[in-house]
Design goal:
The complex is a heterodimer of chains A (383) and B (263).
Chain A: H1 8-11, H2 22-26, H3 37-46, H4 67-71, H5 78-91, H6 97-109, E1 140-143, H7 146-150, H8 152-167, E2 172-173, H9 184-188, H10 192-209, E3 213-216, H11 219-228, E4 235-238, H12 239-248, E5 260-264, H13 278-285, E6 290-292, H14 323-333, E7 338-341, H15 344-356, E8 364-367, H16 368-375
Helix pairs in contact in A: 3-5, 8-16, 12-13, 14-15
Chain B: E1 3-6, E2 9-11, E3 34-36, H1 38-54, E4 58-63, H2 69-78, E5 82-86, H3 96-107, E6 114-118, H4 129-136, E7 141-151, E8 154-160, E9 166-172, E10 175-179, H5 191-196, E11 203-205, H6 245-258
Parallel strand pairs in B: 1-4, 1-6, 4-5, 5-11, 6-10, 7-10
Antiparallel strand pairs in B: 2-3, 7-8, 8-9
Helix pairs in contact in B: 3-4
């Protein structure tokens, strides 16, 4: 415990909390979960022994969307208190089996699903994408990461992005089987040591190839690489930012009409946490035929899909509707044909919600790159 | 209570495409991920829980090359106090019987009240080292243990038998138990935890240190040896359903209905 010796409240300055409750008020899971972030902060400052939190499974309900941190008038980061408590639980080994499996998978195989390392680049086997390790410095590196490498649904997003990059004649490479998980979710599940290990492994390759720009599939990876990787000099962009730049520079334009009424779901790690609200919308609007209708809760007020912060590996204690189901129902009420999003976790949770609410005939969930690919006349094949 | 836990480092094979090597007696382990044998992980956790309740020490022992320090160090991070590696080129080819002799030779010099092993190993699945070791050390033993209670110098253990039966036994300490998976929920071992024990010394002993001769271990000291390893030939009766996801699902439901799998 030496590394974590400084107690949580001191480390995160929690004594300056004024208990105003804006954090809990803004917390998307507080409506359905016993998790009360304001109370967690208070208790952590007055309790001698933070082990009282160890049996509270709701500590794992937090999706780390960070609304609390954005709204805190004292500039505190309540979400980091949750992650800090998880760190303590991880250090004592007292965590749920599904979380252990995800961490073990990332440790042994470089991905939290524990899929084989040598199958990481299988999605790209017919695409002849250059090996980034053999490219000259100063190029574009596409950092695919785990969901897009292994999940059949998200593989379609990666393939669509390749279609788009090729249409704009971008020369880029991937790390293939040498890539490992960015560690974003690992860190949020409280495994700091493993996050550092994964970061070091990826940094070894980044340092070798010195890419000018790293483009990520997921906002979670973008956030980790951009804000948490130490010593990374490359520009890190989410694909929505990179693709919008290509359009602005006149290197990419859409030639196929996609007549569709859609709404856009802001991923928390892209919007709230990194302020990228406009680029995905700009890409959307540049596809001919697209009519964009905004959610009532959009941009900074966007409702979290519950896929982040390790929740892909933990169902959560909350009762009632999943927030992704609320999102789908809202979209149906707005009369749109599809929800467009730009994050693998949002894509998966929203699509699940379409199925669990029995609305498969009425509404689709489409990734922004899939839509862009359609705008180029290439319909992505989703099995 | 002083406990010794015997642990093994094995390749993980669930996700791997296995290849039999040139000798036709082993698999090609290049590119495979190794970790602690699953059963042994439960045994280490069982030892830690007993130590937490009763006090005492835990020594973990593993037979094998330097790479085995990975699993020993992991056990130290988990809560074991000492680790010992038994290593010698002469150990190569040891079967369960020879392996038990190697372990017995090391254990007789270490004070202990209880010895734990996993029921079996993930790789060659003999399931014999634990019970052979008990015989050699002349200890009472119980195999397939799913619950342990200690009262004084007596252990009450549950054993998982076939047909869903559960047997309850009492044993006098010192004793040996082979631990079944599911007896507990092994705790997570963090990377920081492993780093914290990175400098802890792990002892190593060879055939001479253990007072054994080369004839007693390895192939020469074994009662059995592997003749050949092969994949069973593909039999008949399997049907691969082709088509799109929907067609496959439809065809599968039809078959299940026809053959009484579902109503």
């Amino acid at each position: 415990m030496e590394e974590l010796q400084q107690p949580l409240p001191e480390r995160l300055d929690l004594f300056t909390c004024i208990q105003c409750g804006k954090c809990t008020g803004g917390c998307p899971v507080s409506i359905k979960s016993p998790l009360n972030i304001r109370r967690v902060i208070r208790e952590s400052t007055v309790r001698e022994d933070l082990h009282i939190f160890f049996d509270r499974l709701e500590i794992w309900d937090c999706t780390t969307c960070s609304t609390c941190a954005i709204r805190c008038p004292r500039g505190l980061r309540p979400v980091d208190a949750i992650i800090g408590l998880r760190e303590m639980m991880v250090e004592e080994g007292r965590i749920e089996k599904t979380i252990i499996d995800a961490l073990d998978g990332a440790y042994k195989y470089g991905n939290p699903w524990g899929r084989a390392k040598n199958k990481r680049a299988e999605w790209a086997q017919d695409l002849e994408i250059p090996n980034a390790l053999e490219m000259d410095p100063g190029q574009v590196l596409y950092f695919v990461c785990c969901a897009a490498s292994y999940d059949p649904r998200v593989q379609v997003v990666a393939k669509s992005l390749v279609t788009v990059l090729r249409a704009a004649e971008v020369s880029f490479g991937i790390l293939g089987n040498k890539e490992v998980c960015c560690g974003s979710e690992i860190r949020r599940m409280g495994e700091v040591g493993l996050f550092e290990m994964l970061m070091e492994e990826n940094m070894k390759n980044f340092t070798k190839i010195e890419p000018k720009t790293i483009v990520t599939t997921s906002p979670h990876c973008m956030n980790a690489l951009k804000n948490e990787y130490e010593g990374l000099d490359s520009e890190v962009l989410h694909y929505s930012q990179f693709v919008w730049r290509l359009i602005e520079e006149g290197k990419l334009s859409f030639n196929t009409e996609v007549p569709m009424k859609v709404t856009y779901h802001d991923p928390c790690y892209l919007g709230k946490q990194n302020g990228v609200f406009d680029e995905p919308r700009d890409v959307l609007k540049s596809i001919p035929g697209i009519e964009l209708i905004e959610f009532g809760r959009c941009r900074e007020n966007s409702l979290c899909c519950e896929g982040g912060g390790g929740r892909m590996w933990m169902e959560g204690t909350g009762i009632g509707k999943r927030l992704s189901e609320v999102r789908v129902e809202d979209a149906l009420e707005m009369g749109v044909e599809a929800i467009i999003t730009a994050c693998p976790f949002c894509l998966l949770t929203l699509e699940d919600a379409v199925k669990t609410t029995g609305n498969e005939e009425k509404i689709k969930v489409i990734d922004l790159m899939e839509l862009a690919s359609m705008g180029l006349g290439v319909t992505p094949e989703v099995e | 209570m002083d406990i010794i836990v015997c642990i093994k480092r094995v390749p993980e094979t669930a996700e791997a495409d296995l290849v039999i090597d040139g000798s036709k007696k082993a698999i090609d382990t290049d590119g495979l991920v190794f970790s602690i044998n699953e059963w042994d992980n439960y045994a280490v956790e069982a030892a830690i829980q007993l130590k937490e309740a009763e006090g005492g020490t835990i020594t973990v022992i593993s037979v094998g090359p330097e790479e085995n320090n990975e699993v020993l160090r992991r056990a130290l991070a988990m809560g074991a106090d000492e680790a010992l590696r038994l290593t010698d080129p002469a150990f190569e080819g040891s079967d369960a019987y020879a392996m038990a002799k190697i372990l017995a030779a090391a254990i007789k010099d270490i004070p202990h009240d209880l010895i734990l092993t996993g029921v079996q190993a993930d790789d060659d699945g003999f399931g014999a080292v634990g019970v052979a070791l008990a015989q050699m050390l002349e200890l009472p033993y119980a195999a397939l243990v799913t619950d342990i209670k200690k009262e004084g110098d007596t252990l009450t253990v549950h054993r998982e038998l076939e047909g869903g039966l559960e047997e309850v036994d009492t044993l006098k300490l010192p004793a040996l138990l082979t631990i079944q998976t599911g007896i507990n929920e092994p705790r997570y071992v963090s990377i920081m935890g492993i780093r914290r024990v990175a400098k802890k010394e792990i002892g190593a002993k060879g055939v001479a240190d253990l007072g054994l001769s080369e004839e007693e271990v390895g192939l020469k000291g074994s009662l059995s040896q592997i003749e050949e390893l092969f994949f069973p030939p593909v039999g008949e009766g399997a049907e691969i359903i082709e088509g799109t996801m929907d067609e496959k699902a439809e065809a599968l439901v039809k078959i299940l209905k026809e053959r009484g799998g579902i109503g």
